[in-house]
Amino acid sequence: MSSEPAARSTISVQLFEQADAACARAQADSDVHMAVCGGREIWHTLHALDAIVLAVTAAEAGINEAVDYVRFRENLAGDFEDRTSLLKKWTELPNVVAAKTFDEETPPYIEFRVLVRLRHAVVHYKWGGRAAPDCFNDLLARGLALPNESDWITAALTNQTAEWALATVSAMFIRLGELVSPVEDPHLWVWGRVGFSRVSR
Q1: Nearest-angstrom CA–CA distance, 167 and 161
Q2: Measured between alpha carbons, how far is 132 from 140 in angstroms, rounded to an integer?
Q3: Please, which contacts does 137-145 make with residues 24 or more away whose CB atoms are closer than 8 Å?
Q4: Which domain holds residue 189?
Q5: Domain for residue 108, yes or no?
Q6: Phi-psi bin for 27: left (phi > 0), alpha (psi -120 to 50), beta?
Q7: 33-79 residue pLDDT tens
Q8: In this predicted model, which residue has the larger pLDDT, 67 or 100?
Q9: Which residue, 30, 95, 108, 126, shows the most beta carbons closer than 10 Å to its own?
Q10: What distance in Å separates the CA atoms of residue 55 and residue 20, rounded to the nearest whole number?
Q11: In contact, 144 and 161? CB cutoff 8 Å
Q12: CB count in 10 Å sphere of residue 123
């Protein structure tokens, strides 16, 4: 029996689908904290928390699954995913496979870097008037966060941030597939295909 990864629904696809469902709930939700930014309605929703955390978790699971696939094909070092940060895995893996990688100063990577920092700030949130993290200013600049909120976490958890989180992770997987362009057994390369397209909208 082969130990080759099976062409099936992966954990990362299932996590992405859960994040997408949370994003759909965020779009259907509404709150007293509402504003219009750049012609778009924006409101606070706790469902954005699910979308952000699950989207980044899907990205981490997916890149680790892709590393396993490449390890099977390319004899990649056994501790690659253990010694490499999430952001670094996304740039190093396509470089190992195809000698090319993401441009770290353009989308989707620059958006992904902000998203990973946001997830980190959210899951390590400290009560008690701490200053907003730098990634919050990035959200404000993109029109994703509520302006004029006293608490940055309330301002950051919006329907628009949820939508952006899902779009960012989807774009990362699609770009990874373009960079790697697997030609040998492409049916086994599930990352960047239909599993990471948006299903709820």
Answers
A1: 10
A2: 11
A3: 138/114, 139/114, 143/37, 143/38, 143/40, 143/42, 144/37, 144/42, 145/42
A4: 11-194
A5: yes
A6: alpha
A7: 678 777 888 999 999 999 999 999 999 999 988 888 777 776 666 66
A8: 100
A9: 108
A10: 8
A11: yes
A12: 11
Picking from 62, 63, 60, the residue whose alpha carbon sits closest to that of residue 93 is: 63
Q: CA 45 to CA 16: how far, in whole Å? A: 19
Give pLDDT tens digits for 103-125. 999 999 999 999 999 999 999 88
In a domain, 200, yes or no: no
Is residue 32 included in any domain, yes or no? yes
Residue owning tokens 């709150």? 31
Q: Is the pTM of this model over 0.85?
A: yes
Amino acid code (one letter) for 155: A
Q: Please enumerate in sequence order all residues whose Cβ is within 8 A of that of 164, keeping only pairs 6 or more positions apart, or say none.
A: 111, 115, 142, 144
* Residue labelled with tokens 């699609």: 174
In a domain, 95, yes or no: yes
Q: How many domains does the chain have?
A: 1
Q: Which of 4-8, 37-41, 141-145, 176-180 has the lowest mean pLDDT?
A: 4-8
CA 55, 197, 2, 80 torsion-angle sign: negative
